[in-house]
Every structure is written in C-alpha cells, then in structure tokens.
Write a structure and sequence with these properties.
The structure holds 2 protein chains of 2 kinds. By secondary structure, chain A is mainly β. Helix content of chain A is 11%, strand content 29%. Chain A has helices spanning 37-44, 106-109, and strands spanning 3-6, 11-14, 19-23, 53-59, 67-73, 79-84. In chain A, the strands form 2 sheets. In chain A, strands 3-4-5-6 form a 4-stranded antiparallel sheet, with no helix packed on it. In chain A, strands 1-2 form a two-stranded antiparallel ribbon. In chain A, 16% of the residues are buried. Chain B is α+β, with helices and mostly antiparallel strands. Chain B is 19% helix and 35% strand. Chain B is built from 4 helices and 11 strands. The radius of gyration of chain B is 17 Å and the shape is globular. Classes of the chains: A mainly beta, B alpha+beta. The structure holds zinc ion. Zinc ion binds next to loops of chain A.
Chain lengths: 114, 182
C-alpha cells in the first residue's frame, strides 16, 4: 500500500483515500474564443504521458477533499513531494530520484524493449 | 388528508459484533455539513457553543454536540440531543454554507478492547492511540464505503456513514468484529 503525504492533513495517508486528477500546472487559456480548433485540442486533450518525473493533481477524495499537486516518478511510483494547490512547481534539481531508489521494472530486468 | 410517512432509522434495532468489539446503532441525531472561510470560524464557534477545530484530524465536543474537522474549510457537526443546528448557525451573522444532513448519515458505535481491530478490518488508517487519540476524527474509507470516524474513548469509535451504505458498513464491521476475537 502506498502512503501519500497530504499537505492539508499534514500526514501520510493510504492511497485508498486518494484519486489522481490529471496533469498539474496546465495553463488555462484566457482567450478561448479566439483559439483555433488545433490550439484548443492541444490545451484540452494532449498530454505528455512522461516516463519518469511528472507533476500531477491529486485529490484527497475520502479525506479532507482537497486537490493538491504531486511530483511523482511514473517508473517507480515514488512520490518525490506533494504541495498545496496554487504553489509553483518545486525546484526540479532537488527532486531527482536517487538511482538506487528506482524499483526494478519488467522492462529493465526481463524484456528487450528499450 | 395527506398520509404521513414515518421516518425510520436505518439499522433500527441492530446489534452485533463480538466480545472484543460490540456493535450498536447510535441514537438519532441532527447533523450539518458546515463550510466556511477562516474569518467566519470564531462567529460560528460562538453560535454553536464550541470551538470549531482548525487542526487536521481533531474535534471539539460539548454537551452532546460534536464538531469534527473534515477539511480546511469543512466540518461535520453532530448534535446527539437533536438540537436545531441549522437555526444555530443561521444566527452567526457571518458567511457560511450549512446543509442539513441529519438523515443522510447514520452511525454505528463500535466498543470494546478490539474496537480498533474491528474498524481496521476495512479502514487503512493508523488507529494506535498516538496516531489517532481520543477525540481524533477523520473522513476515510471502510473498504468500499466512505465513513467519518470519531474516537470517543480509548476503546470506542463512532462510525458515521451514509444511510444507504449502512447495511454494507454494518455487515463488514460485524465480520471484522468477529475476527477481532471473543
Ligand atoms: Zn487531506
């Protein structure tokens, strides 16, 4: 069971109480009526699906109910940090996961996939 | 002439559990879901006659009335004497949102030396007395159901759940209470 630190409850709680809520720090357009369909598609639908460090919105749904942001490694599932909604992205250089912290994956150990 | 429907308490008469953790239904109570910004907390506390807690996972109780911190701007207020909580907060004179949820919720009381084990049968929270002392409260889950948990004594919990989930929550607690021992 993963434990996730909620910045509003100020403690680690079980993943069972949380829901992932998509990418964080997406700039909402201020001129939506002037956008082309392609620009709107890019804002509304297209996401990077990063392998590695990513910034996500999470919601402590069955807890305090609050949305917050998390920096998470999509390979190891490790949460590097969580922080309140509205705060800027934390400094990346302090969040790089240590190499040895990366868990073994099927790709790395069993498969020939790059 | 209109026919009046009788209000029935979900799980009316329910008793269960084991020697280690007994289960019973809490008496009817009034409840509100209260939302407010920090600047309204002191006036609302005055109107309710108890200090709305502002620290996570804490509650305040006085004369059968309980205010449970659910989130930074959200409380569950329960009155076991069925006082009119909506009228009480309406007198606060400050901006807030209150919804009467007296009959949306029902509560199951879990009591005994294995009460924590019974609740942990479906709830992932650390219920040790250091992490979840008497008076601690939290919205959380009991397996697939959302609950609000309040520790009323070292060996007693109040489990609030939505009334439509009451058969599921009570059945699950009953199983877990049997696992907690005789
Ligand atoms: Zn929280």
């Amino acid at each position: 069971m993963l434990l996730i630190y909620c910045p509003y409850c100020e403690e680690e709680r079980s993943e069972l109480e949380f829901r992932q809520a998509g990418d964080a720090h997406i700039a909402r357009p201020t001129n939506m009526t002037e956008m082309t369909d392609e620009e709107f598609e890019a804002f509304f639908f297209l996401r990077d699906n990063v392998k590695g460090l990513t910034f996500e919105r999470w919601r402590h749904l069955n807890g305090c109910g609050r949305f917050f942001n998390a920096a998470r490694d999509t390979v190891s599932d490790k949460f590097l940090t969580t922080y309140k909604a509205g705060l800027p992205k934390p400094d990346l250089s302090t969040l790089r996961p240590a190499t040895e912290a990366t868990v073994e994956t099927y790709e790395a150990t069993e498969s020939d996939a790059k | 002439m209109a026919d009046l429907a009788n209000r029935t308490l979900p799980l009316s008469g329910f008793h269960g559990g084991s020697g280690a953790a007994s289960l019973s239904v809490a008496a009817p109570a009034t409840r509100i879901s209260l939302r407010a910004k920090p600047d309204a907390v002191s006036a609302l506390s005055g109107a309710l006659g108890l200090s709305l807690p502002t620290k996570p996972k804490t509650s305040a109780s006085a004369n059968g009335r309980h205010a449970l911190w659910l989130g930074p701007d959200e409380w569950l207020v329960i009155d076991e004497n069925e006082a009119d909580l909506m009228a009480a907060v309406a007198l606060s004179g400050v901006l807030h949102s209150a919804t009467d949820i007296s009959h949306r919720n029902t509560a199951i009381l879990v009591k005994g030396r294995g009460a924590d084990v019974a609740v942990n049968g479906g709830c992932p929270q650390d219920l040790s007395l250091t992490a979840f002392p008497v008076g601690a409260c939290s919205r959380t889950v009991l397996a697939k159901a959302e609950i609000v948990l309040l520790r009323t004594a070292e060996d007693a919990f109040r489990v609030e759940c939505w009334r439509s989930f009451a058969p599921y929550v009570s059945a699950l607690l009953n199983e877990a209470a049997e696992d907690a021992g005789n």
